[in-house]
Write a structure and sequence with these properties.
5 helices; single chain; three-stranded antiparallel β-sheet
């Protein structure tokens, strides 16, 4: 049974089950499910409830030729080359492995600060920047606040802030106005998946010196 302490709330799992959750949030929830038996069981229950509701819904009358029209449109689509299945790299969850360009030798890490590196992903959406953040052992990020929502899932190692300690699989949601200073564990690096909706705001008055890496680039 999962021993994780930080999970998506029920409303988020309901939206995930119904397919109504945004792309970036869905990637993060999927990554959390890779680690969490409790949320897997809850999602299975929600899927069963959804299936029951669909089975009880009144059928909708459609024109007799609808199936033929749909199949004709599918047949008219251009042929595409088969895409190799994503490679599971470094035991990342499948939702993360799908974002990694397996034609490249490795992730493209970029230094954000003396303790933090970032590797950004292309996700086909424009609301959140989705990336991996790597905190060196014992490293600290600058104390900062959030201008919008941020979803975070710990994929490797652990980190702490003023509120708690977060270990592999933990899911965090930060809202606009939240402030904290993550610190990596002393016994090894920490890698987190994050989806950021707005630039962070450094609490240090000298934070303007670091503005280049504060910009986000949803893609």
């Amino acid at each position: 049974m999962s021993t994780l302490k930080h999970h998506p709330d029920t409303a988020m799992l309901v939206d995930f089950s119904a397919g109504n959750l945004s792309t970036a949030a869905s990637i993060c929830v999927s990554a959390h499910l890779h680690f969490c038996d409790r949320c897997k069981e809850e999602l299975l229950r929600l899927d069963q409830v959804g299936s029951q509701l669909m089975s009880e819904a009144e059928p909708m009358v459609v024109e007799e030729q609808l199936f033929d029209k749909v199949m004709a449109k599918i047949d008219a689509l251009p042929d595409t080359e088969a895409v190799p299945p994503p490679k599971v790299i470094d035991n990342y969850p499948l939702s993360v492995s799908k974002l990694i360009d397996y034609t490249q030798p490795g992730l493209k890490w970029r230094k954000m600060s003396g303790s933090v590196d970032v590797a950004k992903f292309k996700t086909g959406q424009s609301d959140f920047e989705v990336a991996l953040h790597r905190i060196r052992a014992g490293g600290k990020t600058p104390h900062h606040g959030h201008g919008g929502q941020e979803f975070t899932v710990v994929l490797k190692g652990s980190f702490s802030d003023e509120n708690a300690v977060y270990t592999e699989g933990d899911f965090l949601l930060r809202e606009a106005g939240d402030e904290h200073q993550p610190t990596g564990a002393q016994n090894g690096e920490c890698i987190c998946l994050s989806a950021l909706a707005a630039p962070i705001k450094l609490s240090n008055p000298l934070g303007f010196l670091m503005k280049p890496w504060l910009r986000i680039n949803p893609m």
